[in-house]
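Appendix B. One record, verbatim.
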Amino acid sequence: DYDDDIFCVPEIAHRSVHNRRNYYQTEHLPINWILSDPKGYISMIKDVQDANSSFRPTTILLKEWRRSLKEIHGDEFQLKSFHMELIVAELATNDTSADCLTLSAQFFEKLIPYYIAQKPLFQDRANPDGFIDDYEISDKCLGILQKHTTRGRLIIEKIRSAESESEVASLIEELINTAPKYDTYVTSTHKPHKPHASYVIE
């Protein structure tokens, strides 16, 4: 609907960067080519941001939350970054007045019972027969998500009642750095990220 060109790009194996390199180089497996509409998605995301300015900061915040879980669980954590972005885009479009806290709370609340339980929901712009969210999420990954979406909702409620910017920043750090306090099997090499100033919600 944006009349942008469709591209043919190599399909990326659903593995970590290290395992992906081994998958192609060591096993000498052929690369599949798929259709892609990057310009169309860029235009769509711009429209969402224009309609709701909270879309981008919410997406950045939640991708940091995902990054922390991905660092802990590796390939066992299967929730895709782009899938998350499309979920936030839909939430922001459905409620253009929603702020970052509201969108984050809606994401944590609806991720499992709707966006995962009812998937596939997001049709591939470049391929009408395909869906962006048509991929496997294991029971183990669901367990991880159940634990951390519940925790995420609780932290969002604490942020709502925070009385200072420093308290908000501390809670955001707690949200996006899931490893040190909440997963006992994390190795000592894990280095938690500090919250960026743009995450602070006034």
